[in-house]
Structures are given as structure tokens and as C-alpha cells.
Amino acid sequence: MNNLIDGLSMNIEQTNLDKLRSVFPECVSEGKLDIDKLLSLCGEYIDNDFEKYKFEWKGKADCLRLAQKRSTGTLRPCPEESVDWDTTQNLYIEGDNLEVLKLLQTAYYRKVKMIYIDPPYNTGNDFVYADDFADPMARYKEVTQQTTKSNPETMGRYHTNWLNMMYPRLRLAANLLRDDGVIFISIDDVEIDNLKKLCNEIFGEENFVAQFIWQSRQNKDNRNITGVSIDHEYVVCYTKQFGHRVFRGTDRKTEQYKNPDNDPRGPWTSANMVGLATADARPNLHYDLINPADGRNYGCPEKGWRYDRNTMNRLIQEGRIIWPDNPDGRPRKKSFLNELSDNLPGFSSVFSTGVYTNTATKEIGGLFNKYLFDFPKPVEVIKQLVSQVSNTDDIILDFFSGSATTAHAVMQLNAEDGGNRRFILVQLPELCDEKSEAYKT
Questions:
Q1: Which of 22, 52, 27 is nearest to 41 (CA)?
Q2: Dihedral sign for Cα atoms in the order 429, 435, 438, 441
Q3: What is the separation, in whole angstroms, between the first and last Cα of the chain?
Q4: In degrees, to the nearest 5, what angle opens at C-alpha 312 toward C-alphas 309 and 315?
Q5: Domains along the chain with CATH numbers
Q6: pLDDT tens by residue, 145-197
Q7: What predicted TM-score, i.e. pTM, was given to this entire model?
Q8: Helices (DSSP H) in 177-265: which residue ranges?
């Protein structure tokens, strides 16, 4: 109720202090945190050596204060611009995403299952968010008039500007994720190193899941002076809390499981039994394998067998060894379909092959009969990620909405599996270049 009374967004600083007080009450005195006492309780004792590994840049402290500064803004509903206003549970919000992320804290704190963002890659011509809310109206005019500047390397704050834009937004985004929440961030080579350091600090180095590689370019780029065609982008993934399986996994291919001998244990496929260790490393896996039925000796592979003698004898007794007619052949094992683990095979870190940036351009062209967006993401790329980590009633957030591919992916996946996933999208109000197709439309 306090937020309704004072007209401010959620007090993140006080919320964090209350959390610490509930666990370490002795570290809070007169409403202030005793950081030295907190560190000592965690086994970190203060000494005079201040030289330690840390990730710093100019403006970092100001960014943290900016992220935790309470907002006086409000979200204004627009039923006249909406579809199914009374029934939809999806949100598309137009505004500066830093302010919007603050306003979402109260209603969606720790409720979002997945975040996907495709932020500016910092190529030098990207839009740079200048976060100064001293005069909200002037700021709004600046945004809507597109009176912003690019971020060339020559200005001396190339990486710093990008970090100052990303840091407070990721801080606020982390608050919205559930304990089992996952964040995906698209990026390229320019800021991949800084992004991972940033996420290590915000989400925890131990919560890093993967750095996915997506082949975004279909045709080779011959413009690079190095002679290398950079054909890929990255999708960095972190989870909110380590200790759970993040990805559902890849669907199994079970067509190879047959039952030609009517085995009562059901369909099976033959599996390799050749080992991977030398005799010096695993002498117990090196022995001659003999078929007890006819005494035929199949010898021992160079890297031995996959199972020791006791396990192999058990497999023989269970009738699970397939003996080849050719003495030079290798015996194999029957692996039954009903023995497969509930866990699906892992999702590859190289994903969405055959789907490129120009795939998305064609998708947009098919919807509008014009090419209205620069470098949109294909629906299939984001749909794969959503399908891997979300359940049918989860909330998906994208606060760099762009061409709204995330919304498209969520709705398409819902249509395919009958889900009721909801999305929250945020996009800065931008005026189109008067020469662009989007402006003409």
C-alpha cells in the first residue's frame, strides 16, 4: 500500500536491507548495514591489501545508484491502442526501459521465468541511452525527437558508455527473475567479454549456463580487412540460481529402436561396447571377450572394453550381448528404449542452424510486404529458447523489444502447444528516419 500512497516505485534498497536483516540481524544497527561485520561472518576478514580482482569502469557507482533510485513515473493504459484490452494478459509498454523496469518491480518482482534481450551491440552507430531523469519532460522530448548520438570509438568512452547503459538495466532485470529464472542476451564480439563480466557480477559466475553460438550470416562477408567473414553471434545465458536443470533438452530420435527378435523387454538398439582407456590407465577393462556358447574369442580392442569382467558377465547372462557371426566383428550390447533416462539429450550450444538474419528479414517482409527493421531476429531462434526453459503458463520479458520477435515467438509457441505463456515487451519510443520504409508506411 505504501507505493500507492507515496507514488514511488518499489524501494529496492530497503528491500535488500530487510533481506539482510532477516538473515544477519547483528549486521544492521540504527538502520545501517555494518559491512565489515557482514564480511567477517562470511569468513572474509578486512586487511590492508586493497589490490584484488574486480571489474570497474567510470560511472559504475552512479549506475548502481541510478538503478536503485525510486521512480515517480506511472504506466498509462492505452485501451484504444490495444487488442482485447479486457482479456489479454500481455503487455507492450512504450517508454525508456530503465524507468519501466523500475515500475515493474512491484507487480512482477521475482515472477518472470525468462528474459530475452537483444540490446545495442555497440557497433559505434547504436543508439546510446543517456540516463538522466532530472527533467523527465525534457528527457521524453529528447527521446521522441531522436536527438541522441552514436557511440564512436574516437570519443574515448566507447565501452564505458555501453556498460553504463547495460549495468542498471540488468540489475533491475535480475530482481524480476524467479529463483529458477533464466536470462538470454544476444551480443557479438565487440562486447561479449564485458557482457560476461557484467553478468558474472550481477547473476554470479557460478550461475553461468552457456555461451550459445548462432550462425546469423548465410552468405560470406568479403568486406572485412582481415579476410575473415564473421558469420556468427552469441546468446549468453545465465540462470538466477544454480542447482537445477535449466534446459529441457533435445527430443530423442527413437526410430532406431526395433524389436526384430520379439524380446519381451521391448524395442532395442545395438550399442558400442569398445572402451576409451589404455591398458595402463584401466587394466581391468582389458581382457579377451569369449562367447560362452561356442567358445569364439573376439579378443580385446586397443582401448579395451567399456565394462569390467563382472559387468560383462552379467550382460552375457541377461542375454544382452549381440555376438557377430564374423570373428573379426565386435560384440555389441542391447540398449532398451525403456531404460532411457527421463532427462532428454542436451541442447546444443551451437543452435538454430539454417536460420539466419535474412530469414527474419523475409519474415517481416512477408507480414508487411516491406522491409521495416534492421537486423531483426528470426522467430525460430527465440522460440527455441522459450520452448526450452519455459512452461505453458510462464511470463517472458523482453525490454529491448525492437521488431517484437519475442512476442511473435511466444504467441506462435502457445498456438503450437496450447500454452498460455504471457509476454511483457518494452520499447523506447523512436521516430523513424524519414527516408526509411517504416516512415513511409
A1: 27
A2: positive
A3: 44
A4: 155
A5: 2-41 (no CATH), 60-248+353-440 (3.40.50.150), 268-339 (no CATH)
A6: 434 456 666 555 778 889 999 999 999 999 999 999 999 999 999 999 999 99
A7: 0.76
A8: 192-199
